[in-house]
Write a structure and sequence with these properties.
By secondary structure, the protein is mainly alpha-helical. Helices cover 78% and strands 0% of the residues. It contains 2 helices and no strands. The protein has helices spanning 3-22, 27-38. The longest helix has 20 residues, at 3-22. It starts with a helix and ends with a helix.
């Protein structure tokens, strides 16, 4: 795994946790929020 891939994986994990701090969600809702917040990452 390259450094860039590792950073992306950790960023996604932090983004998921941040989103779930605000409210509980089903997986579909979470995936939509990830798309909205990630800006194509």
């Amino acid at each position: 795994m390259t450094l860039s891939e590792g950073i992306k994986k950790r960023t996604v994990a932090l983004l998921i946790l941040t989103i779930l701090l605000n409210q509980d969600m089903y997986s579909y809702q979470l995936s939509q929020e990830l798309v909205n917040h990630s800006k194509g990452l």
